[in-house]
Amino acid sequence: MTSDLILYTNPMSRGRIARWMLEEAGAVYETRVLDYGTTMKAPDYLKINPMGKVPAIVHKGVAVTETAAICAYLADAFPEAGLAPLIGDPLRGAWYRWLFYAAGPYEASFGDKAMGVEVPADKRAMVGYGCFADVMNTVEAALAQGPYILGDRFSAADVYLGSQIGFGLQFGMTEPRPAFAAYWQRLIERPAHIRATALDDALMPKTA
Fold this sequence. Notes:
- By secondary structure, this protein is of the alpha+beta class.
- It has 2 domains: 78 residues, Glutaredoxin, CATH 3.40.30; 102 residues, Glutathione S-transferase Yfyf (Class Pi), Chain A, domain 2 (Up-down Bundle).
- It is 48% helix and 8% strand.
- The protein has 8 helices and 4 strands; from the N terminus they run βαβαββαααααα.
- β1, α1 and β2 form a beta-alpha-beta unit.
- α1 packs parallel to α3.
- 32% of the residues are buried.
């Protein structure tokens, strides 16, 4: 019997973020692991995500792709988990802001950095993030306001932005500033993150 909520993922992908979000939401879901170049590009999956990438979820027949969108969708689909400020709460605006900041300027700056692209000073007005240093300084200043990106309140924005910071720290792309290291340490100690990591680690290819 097919579940009402299916996660399409691969343990070596941003699917780890989606799984963490599902665990934070307390959702009951089915996992379908796809392989790069084969099942991710199969006709059935391309109907769900024409980009042929993971993660994606299907919830009660509704397909959602893009990791930040998955986080936002699940936060609203499972309001009892308290992962998003309600509409009308002043924090709702900040919640949107940091989800979209992480998916836009933050991701773009890291993509360029990974490819060795450096925006000339006279061209920074043409890109959404200005320069990499601006992105780092902006996030560091925001985290100075509290243990989480919304201050005292943990939310789906931390799942997404925190995962980006953690990835950067792991692969040496994020400067190991004390604020970033302390933030990531708080996040990886969350029970939902521990559960999600264990589930994904168990799916990793076995080495001889």
